[in-house]
Automatic annotation (TrEMBL), chain A:
InterPro entries referenced in this protein's UniProt entry, alphabetically: AAA+_ATPase, ABC_transporter-like_ATP-bd, BCAA_Transport_ATP-bd_LivF, P-loop_NTPase
GO BP terms in the entry: L-amino acid transport
SMART domains tied to this protein: AAA
Protein name (database record): ABC transporter ATP-binding protein
Organism listed in the record: Marinomonas transparens
SUPFAM superfamilies per record: P-loop containing nucleoside triphosphate hydrolases
Lineage of source species: Bacteria, Pseudomonadati, Pseudomonadota, Gammaproteobacteria, Oceanospirillales
Ranges for domain ABC transporter: 2-231
PROSITE patterns: ABC_TRANSPORTER_2
From TrEMBL, chain B:
Organism, as annotated: Marinomonas transparens
Protein known as: Branched-chain amino acid ABC transporter permease
Cellular component, GO, one term: plasma membrane
Pfam families attached to this UniProt entry: BPD_transp_2
Keyword Plastid on entry: no
Superkingdom of the organism of origin: Bacteria
Membrane-spanning segments: 6-24, 31-48, 54-76, 88-113, 133-159, 188-209, 229-250, 262-280
Keywords: Amino-acid transport, Cell membrane, Membrane, Transmembrane, Transmembrane helix, Transport
Record carries keyword Mitochondrion: no
Membrane topology according to the record: Multi-pass membrane protein
Biological processes annotated in GO: amino acid transport
InterPro entries attached to this UniProt entry: ABC_transp_permease, BCAA_transport_permease
From TrEMBL, chain C:
Keyword Nucleotide-binding applies: yes
InterPro entries: AAA+_ATPase, ABC_AA/LPS_Transport, ABC_transporter-like_ATP-bd, BCA_ABC_TP_C, P-loop_NTPase
Signal peptide residue numbers: none
Keyword tags: ATP-binding, Nucleotide-binding, Transport
GO BP, sorted A to Z: D-alanine transmembrane transport; L-alanine transport; L-isoleucine import across plasma membrane; L-valine import across plasma membrane
Species per Swiss-Prot/TrEMBL record: Marinomonas transparens
Highest taxon above the source species: Bacteria
Statement: the UniProt record of this protein carries the keyword Nucleotide-binding: yes
Pfam family, one: BCA_ABC_TP_C
GO CC entries: plasma membrane
ABC transporter domain ranges (all copies): 9-242
GO terms of molecular function: ATP binding; ATP hydrolysis activity; L-isoleucine transmembrane transporter activity; L-phenylalanine transmembrane transporter activity; L-valine transmembrane transporter activity
Full protein name: ABC transporter ATP-binding protein
Automatic annotation (TrEMBL), chain E:
Recorded topology in the membrane: Multi-pass membrane protein
UniProt keyword NADP present: no
Keywords linked to the UniProt accession: Cell membrane, Membrane, Transmembrane, Transmembrane helix
Protein's UniProt keywords contain Transport: no
Compartments in which it is found: Cell inner membrane
One GO cellular component, as annotated: plasma membrane
GO MF assignments: branched-chain amino acid transmembrane transporter activity
Chief localization: membrane
Protein name, entry field: Branched-chain amino acid ABC transporter permease
Family matches, as InterPro entries: ABC_transp_permease, LivM-like
Residues spanning the membrane: 43-64, 85-105, 159-180, 211-229, 249-271, 283-304
A family per Pfam: BPD_transp_2
Source lineage: Bacteria, Pseudomonadati, Pseudomonadota, Gammaproteobacteria, Oceanospirillales
Length: 239, 303, 248, 396, 332
């Protein structure tokens, strides 16, 4: 469904993603893991079209989208919940959600269903998104992405800043999506959760993919190992 | 006295009209367009040129000019503002400032020094008036006031209740994220600029009908437009309408107090509103609290 | 409300509303300035707002804040910072046009010391502690989200705080990174710096704090011993749900 | 400068907001250069004459800078024309540097008192000289013009808070009163005012039949259109304006409100003089301009040429036309007739000033190829100028 | 040494600048009249650019109303001279007075954010202009002239004004340099980037901004007073014209906003462009506007920014650089 070949993404001179190749099949769920600064967000943003791809090729549903605009990618069913939420803070929750419906793809996500999934948003639905708590914002961001009924949903740092209860709710709802056959890529730092949720784990280190396995075939230890080198020095540095 | 008030309200309608394009860009697109006045003059010149060359009524010419202004707006967005707004809030200010210098002088180069007006093309309309209860109410100012209401009301409805309006606001706020939710940000930004410039086209025509203009007449228009916008507050476009009227009334009051007080009156009300908003807003919350909780007044800190 | 002799932060009857929205609903809260306290609670409970009020970024609508027997309710944030009361921001607010070092240095030279050399040392020290030395000369707007969070911490540390308010600085860290962070915070705590830490990753939080507060709807619904709080029925209902993420 | 070249600096507003003044200068300078192509012979010696013309861009700061530059390039004589925004900074720079300077086209009171001279004290200026109209001439002209129609002698005045307005207010209002007019003066307004309803209300209440104003064109358009909306135009017999109305375009933009506005001209093509420099008379000059540019003649044509006339005459009379002080001495005693009339520094109301004519005129619907014609209705400040038309009441 | 605040270039710059200063001082006695007068203008431009850059570049305070201080500086000079104070003393006193006046102004204006500040300043400049117009000495737009300067011989006068401008410029630049390198300098940049965060770490934002504002007001007023001294004529419209701010913006944008060297480079460029092209009239102005637009679009850090990042050249560093040794020594 999504195929990346040799992707390179740069900030000026700095290569944040280096020659990454990744195949995602229809219906897969992938957990993207990696240390802080490994390039996960950069890769995902490049896939969603928020960052230009420096070299390499990206295709989605057999169409090359390397240089397509991000809105066209949404149109084809690719949707990103960006890191840091990026809500339209001066607009209400409801308006934020409705904006997710700009590309009116067929599907059963609508306002009611989002509010069912995130009941904590209901009483704030007419509040400006900027005045929400961090968790409320995260929920709104996910809801907004769902409104476009994506075929491939990419979630960067899904549970960041969410209370355990809401994390459960979020996972419950993306599990439903997963079970309904939506393809999902997510970045999740809570390894147990990631492994439990995703069928496949992809681990990045310094802009490269260093591990790509089915979660069934791997374990916590191997994954931590995969970015161990960096980890060790970080631990030392910090102590 | 009453007459002065009526005249001020009519003048306020004009200020509101000239301000609404600026306010639209300021509030919605988050661009401070210092070329606003110059663009209004540009549109007035185009209307004048068409009217003069083809012997149309200026109102007809305006209809021709609206698409031209829309195109100018679209180009402005694509060529200049798109890049400039990536560089933060300040850059568009500086860029449009430069642009206004370019426009003014190109207009001068092309149209020369003569003062122009559209009034001579509408017969006596520019100075005809209705007599109501002993008050003389100019026809043209009434038309301009009504136009302001229609334009502002229309824009307000568009922004608040249509998907396009939502997309415009979202794009202005964060074009990158707008793209991620499926909005064609470049297109929408282009459309916003085009809409803004169409209102500038309308206000340029109004300017040409009610007064005279020359290539360098943009700056005072810009200042009036700004004052109306800021007095009206950042809440909604309707604020701008009342901002225009308040500005005009303040000017009239200023002129009553001292003959040189016309402009000063406007400036003072502008500054008063600016500061009242800073200081009262804080008090506002505490006041509400004060009434509700019956505790002592709590001072709010600057932050 | 008599004052105690040892150093203490005391907040009584704190209310805060934004227009119609009542966010803090009568918070009473006392801590020793050497304590390490955790705050949990559902999203929107008012945790960050409480922190803003305590650190002076926002004024309470009502209530009183007393630090070491001194009423600081109306003291602006910058003065509280100089008195050693500093916060980090949940959504990082770096000074994006200057370098990481300068970000931290400006904190040291304004809140901690007037001596330039000393401020250099303090800044470098805190940058090192947060593991950001390699980024020291980078402009702050070119670093990623998590590094920005670290920068928040480094900047707060450079003020040489006595009492440090942390707002979700552990989110998004890998486990190893989170453990390193725990070590850092513990070492601060050992140095006698008071810690108030808001965090949703409870098991990390519990490695550091001696006492826990759970907030909901602008009120404290449970406080005291962490284990006790976490097994409180109200807390489980409002916050944990059936989550697996319990005390490990 | 070398000894047999005379360098003349000439500064005027060719671009910018004041450009309607400078519009014709290129043409007039061309006439002058043609006439000077062979140079001048003065006291038997032949000199080349070089006019260095500069555009102040309507920016006073720039005018001052240009003057300094020209001075440093060694001009022997400086000329400045049109509006205080050009003349005053140039005159100040010349005064400081000791360069003889001749200027015209602004009320001389604003030139003299606006540069720091105090009434009753000796003139602080040693190098700078100005000729042309002033408040005294306006007074005479208005009295003569307004007597042409029967009115209730109630005058509403609208003078802005600028150089012209202030110079005129101080000098005219008391004298109008002495002459038996009731003056309704709402006070100075700031240029850029867009609503004049309080002034209009006052004029209506007082039933004024004469209005006198010194506005810039946008202010006048705003004022007079609003006045018409309020019905003031129906009661006014004479609307006498200066500054706006110098040039036909200012009046054309008023549409149907334009014709019959009364004005006063510092030059008119039917002035009965010829240029000492080019030998052209007024009609020849105006016709040539209309032929070459396709645009209607303006009074600025004669004003500019008269400045050049006076300048060259002064050079001819100077002991040595390349000595700044000799030229200054020649100007101080100059008494000649230019295409614009008499220039006489020997008998001015204050030193350094030679008052000039301002002729009563009126804009009327064009009979020839122009939308509007500019006709002479009165000639008290220079009886040599022929009166051709009767003053028509505005409201009929 | 842990922190570097200067480099090889900056040493060279100091020496170069000192030599240049000596050369410029001696020029007062040898250079031609025209050169002296033009240089005086250049010095005023440098002051204007540097002062605007102080506010906008380092403080994020984009003012479109700096002509307020420029005009008030000139006006105060006229007023003081009318009281009989010798003109050169009046120039300095005027600038000080305006600096003083800017203090209460700052109390209000600095509460405004971004655009509101910019436009607010513009309106305030307009108010200042209108109020000055009410002074009978000024006679509205008629204006008046600083004739008390006429007591000096033209040569003496030229040299005196030249030296006054030179010393003012050098003094202000040195002052600015130390201000920027002080703890207030780095704080100002922090405030520019996020005022709330700056407040939370103990920076007294209002005070820091206030000093920057007053400094810029003083410098701009001095420029206005100097301009008056060299031009003599005071017409309010000229001095309170937004065009002065337009020039400042142009110089700073082209030179490099937020860079000490940028403002100076911008002033030099503007001066050169004006000298060579101003005679082309309208096209000169069109060109100025267009260059400003292009620079802001394609060289957002200005020419100096481009030079700096291309060549790594920093002549007048005001920042802090952690040295490589420090970085290494702290690595395990
Ligand atoms: N805007 C930017 N400009 C320059 N460099 C950047 C920018 N954003 C991120 N980087 C750098 O790119 C690298 C990868 O960052 P990225 O945000 O993709 O990492 P990540 O894996 O998502 O980490 P995190 O867990 O912190 O979100 C990091 O070294 C970061 O410093
Ligand atoms: N400036 C504001 N204006 C209006 N409402 C606000 C404002 N700031 C916060 N709120 C509201 O106050 C409530 C508490 O917000 P706060 O940020 O304190 O929550 P929190 O407990 O920190 O949540 P989270 O864990 O999600 O960060 C939220 O419902 C939020 O919407
Ligand atoms: Mg990331
Ligand atoms: Mg929070």
């Amino acid at each position: 469904m999504l195929s990346a070949k040799n992707l390179d993404v740069r900030y000026g001179q700095f290569r944040a993603v280096r020659g990454v190749s990744l195949e995602v099949k229809q219906g897969e769920t992938i957990a993207l893991i990696g240390a802080n600064g490994a390039g996960k967000s950069t890769l995902l943003r490049a896939i969603a079209g928020a960052l230009p791809i420096y070299s390499g090729e990206l295709s989605f549903k057999h169409k090359v989208i390397t240089h397509a605009a991000s809105c066209d990618r949404v149109k084809q069913g690719l949707s990103l919940v960006p890191e840091g939420r990026r809500l339209f803070t001066e607009m209400t929750i409801e308006e934020n959600l409705l904006l997710g419906k700009t590309i009116n793809r067929a599907g059963d996500w609508d306002l009611d269903r989002v509010f069912d999934t995130f009941p904590n948003l209901v009483k704030r639905r007419h509040a400006k998104a900027g005045s929400l708590s961090g968790g409320e914002q995260q929920a709104t961001a996910i809801g907004r992405a769902l409104m476009s009924n994506p075929e491939l949903l990419i979630l960067d740092e899904v549970s960041l800043g969410l209370s355990p209860l809401v994390v459960d709710q979020v996972y419950a709802s993306i599990e439903k999506l997963r079970d309904a056959g939506t393809t999902i890529i997510l970045v999740e730092q809570a390894l147990d959760r990631a492994i439990a949720f995703a069928k496949r784990a992809v681990c990045m280190l310094e802009g490269r993919i260093v591990l790509d396995k089915l979660t069934a075939d791997t374990n916590r230890h191997e994954i931590t190992e995969a970015y161990f080198g960096l980890q060790q020095s970080a631990t030392q540095e910090a102590s | 006295m009453i007459n002065s008030l009526v005249q001020a309200i009519l003048l306020g309608g004009y200020y509101a009209l000239i301000a609404c394009g600026l306010a639209f860009m300021f509030q919605v697109m988050r661009i401070i367009n210092l070329a606003h006045g110059s663009l209004a003059i540009l549109s007035a010149y185009i209307v004048w040129r068409i009217t003069d060359a083809l012997a149309f009524s200026p109102f007809v010419s305006m209809l021709i000019v609206l698409p031209i202004m829309a195109l100018i707006g679209w180009l402005l967005q694509r060529v200049i503002l798109e890049r400039a707004s990536k560089g933060g809030e300040l850059l568009p200010v500086l860029t449009t400032f430069g642009l206004s210098i370019v426009i003014d002088n190109l207009l001068f180069q092309h149209f020369g020094a003569n003062t122009r007006s559209l009034a001579s093309y509408v017969g006596d309309l520019s100075w005809e008036s209705y007599e109501v209860f002993g008050l003389w109410i100019g026809k043209l100012p009434v038309i301009i006031l009504c136009t302001a209401i229609v334009v502002i009301g229309g824009l307000d409805l568009l922004l608040r209740f249509t998907p396009l309006g939502r997309q415009i606001r979202a794009t202005a706020f964060d074009p990158e994220t707008a793209g991620l939710v499926g909005i064609d940000a470049r297109k929408i930004a282009g459309i916003s600029a085009a809409i803004a410039m169409m209102t500038v086209g309308i206000s340029g025509t109004a300017l040409g009908l009610r007064g005279t203009f020359d290539a360098y007449a943009g700056a005072p228009q810009l200042l009036f437009a700004f004052e109306a916008t800021i007095i009206g507050g950042a809440g909604s476009l309707w604020g701008v309408f009342f901002g225009g009227i308040i500005l005009a009334i303040a000017q009239s009051v200023g002129a009553l107090i001292h003959p040189q007080g016309f402009l000063l009156g406007g400036h003072f009300i502008f500054l008063t509103f600016l500061f009242a908003r800073i200081y009262l807003n804080r008090d506002f919350f505490t006041l509400r609290h004060w009434l509700g909780k019956k505790t002592t007044k709590v001072e709010q800190h600057e932050n | 409300m008599e004052n105690t002799s040892y150093s203490q932060l005391q907040a009584t009857g704190i209310y805060k509303s934004f227009g119609r929205v009542q966010v803090l609903n009568g918070i009473d809260f006392t801590m020793d300035t050497k304590d390490a306290i955790g705050i949990v609670g559902p999203n929107g409970a008012g945790k960050s707002t409480l922190l803003s009020v305590l650190s002076g970024a926002q004024a309470p609508s009502d209530g009183k804040i007393i630090l070491n027997n001194q009423d600081i309710t109306h003291t602006p944030a910058r003065q509280r910072a100089k008195q050693g009361l500093v916060r980090t921001h949940q959504i990082p607010k770096p000074f994006s046009g200057i370098t990481v070092f300068e970000n931290v240095f400006v904190a040291a030279i304004h809140a901690a010391t007037n001596d330039r050399e000393e401020a250099y040392d303090m800044a470098l020290e805190s940058i090192k502690l947060c593991g950001m030395l390699h980024l020291a000369n980078r402009e702050a707007d070119s670093i990623g989200l998590l590094d920005r969070k670290r920068l928040e911490l480094a900047r707060a540390l450079a003020t040489q705080p006595k009492l440090l308010f942390l707002d979700e600085i552990g989110g998004g860290l890998t486990e190893a990174e989170a453990l390193a962070l725990v070590d850092t915070i513990l070492s601060l705590s050992e140095r006698g710096i008071g810690i108030v830490w808001i965090e949703h990753i409870v098991h990390i939080l519990l490695r550091v704090v001696k006492s826990l507060i759970c907030m909901d709807s602008g009120q404290i619904i449970a406080q005291g011993n962490p284990q006790a709080v976490m097994s409180d029925q109200a807390v489980i209902q409002a916050y944990m749900g059936g989550s697996v993420d319990v005390v490990s | 400068a070398d000894d047999d070249t005379i360098n003349i600096g000439f500064i005027s507003p060719r671009t910018g907001p004041l450009a309607s003044f400078g519009k014709t200068d290129g043409f007039v300078l061309e006439q002058a250069r043609k006439a000077l192509a062979d140079g001048m012979t003065i006291h038997g010696k032949h000199y080349k004459v070089n006019i260095l013309d500069r555009d102040s861009q309507s920016d006073p700061a720039r005018a001052g800078q240009l003057a300094k530059e020209l001075i440093n390039q060694g001009v022997d004589l400086m000329l400045a024309i049109s509006t205080p925004e050009v003349i005053n900074p140039v005159a100040d720079a010349s005064e400081a540097a000791g360069v003889p300077t001749l200027s015209t086209v602004m009320p001389w009171e604003a030139w003299y008192y606006g540069r720091g001279a105090k009434p009753g004290q000796p003139s602080p200026f040693k190098w700078t000289y100005h000729f042309g109209f002033g408040a005294g001439e306006f007074y005479k002209t208005y009295m003569s013009q307004w007597a042409l129609l029967e009115t209730n002698k109630k005058v509403g005045v609208m003078y802005p808070n600028d150089a012209d307005g202030n110079a005129i207010r101080g000098a005219l209002v008391p004298r109008f009163k002495e002459a038996g007019y009731t003056v309704i003066d709402p006070g100075a307004y700031e240029t850029g005012t867009t609503d004049f309803s309080s002034q209009i209300a006052q004029f209506k209440a007082e039933k004024v039949e004469i209005i006198n104003s010194f506005p810039i064109p946008p202010d006048f358009a705003a004022f007079w259109r609003q006045a018409a909306q309020q019905g003031l135009n129906r009661q006014v017999k004479i609307i006498q304006i200066a500054k706006t109305g110098l040039f036909p375009a200012d009046i054309e933009v008023l549409g149907s409100l334009g014709p019959k506005i009364a004005s006063a001209a510092y030059w008119h093509k039917s002035f009965p003089y010829t240029s000492t420099l080019t030998g052209q008379n007024g009609t020849q000059l105006a016709d040539l301009w209309e032929k070459e540019s396709g645009e209607q003649w303006t009074q600025q044509l004669g004003a500019t040429l008269s400045l050049l006339d006076a300048a060259t005459e002064a050079l001819k009379r100077a002991k040595s036309p390349t000595s700044r002080s000799d030229i200054r001495d020649a100007i101080a005693t100059l008494n000649v007739t230019t295409i614009g009339g008499k220039v006489d520094f020997t008998s001015g109301p204050v030193p350094n000033v030679s008052p000039g004519p301002i002729i009563g005129a009126q804009w009327v619907k064009g009979t020839g190829k122009h939308k509007l014609d500019y006709v002479i209705t009165e000639n008290v400040t220079d009886p040599n100028v022929p009166v051709t038309h009767k003053l028509l009441p505005y409201n009929r | 040494m842990k922190i570097k605040r200067s480099n090889a270039y900056s040493m060279a710059t100091v020496i170069g600048a000192s030599l240049l200063f000596v050369a410029l001082v001696s020029a007062a006695f040898v250079a031609s009249d025209n050169v002296l007068e033009r240089l005086t203008v250049l010095f005023v431009y440098v002051i204007l650019a540097a002062m605007w850059n102080t506010l906008a570049g380092f403080g994020g305070l984009v003012s479109i109303g700096q002509q307020l201080f420029f005009g008030l500086g000139a006006y105060a000079t006229i007023r003081l001279a009318d009281f009989g104070i010798p003109p050169f003393v009046a120039v300095l006193m005027a600038a000080l007075l305006v600096g003083l006046l800017s203090w209460p102004i700052s109390k209000f204006m600095l509460h405004l954010k971004a655009a509101e500040f910019g436009i607010g300043m513009w309106v305030l400049a307009s108010v200042g202009h209108l109020l000055v117009n009410l002074d009978p000495l000024i006679q509205g737009e008629t204006g008046t002239s600083l004739i008390s300067l006429n007591v000096y011989q033209i040569e003496t006068r030229r040299v005196l004004i030249y030296l006054a401008a030179l010393i003012s410029m050098v003094g202000l630049l040195i002052g600015l340099f130390y201000l920027l390198r002080s703890k207030a300098g780095i704080a100002m940049q922090a405030i520019r980037d996020n005022e709330e965060a700056a407040d939370s770490i103990g920076v007294d934002a209002q005070t820091v901004k206030k000093w920057f504002f007053i400094f810029a007001a003083f410098g701009t007023a001095l420029a206005g007073a100097l301009w008056l001294a060299q031009a003599s004529s005071f017409q309010p419209k000229t001095y309170f014209s937004v065009q002065w701010t337009a020039y400042m913006i142009f110089m700073v944008l082209v030179g490099g906003i937020g860079r000490f060297e940028g403002a100076i480079l911008g002033a030099l460029l503007f001066f050169a462009v004006e000298t060579w092209f101003a005679a082309t009239g309208v096209w000169y102005l069109v060109g100025l506007g267009a260059v400003a637009v292009l620079c802001s679009l394609f060289l957002p850090k200005g020419l100096w920014g481009a030079i700096e990042s291309r060549l790594g050249l920093r002549l007048i560093p005001v920042g802090y650089q952690v040295t490589d040794e420090t970085l290494k020594s702290h690595k395990p």
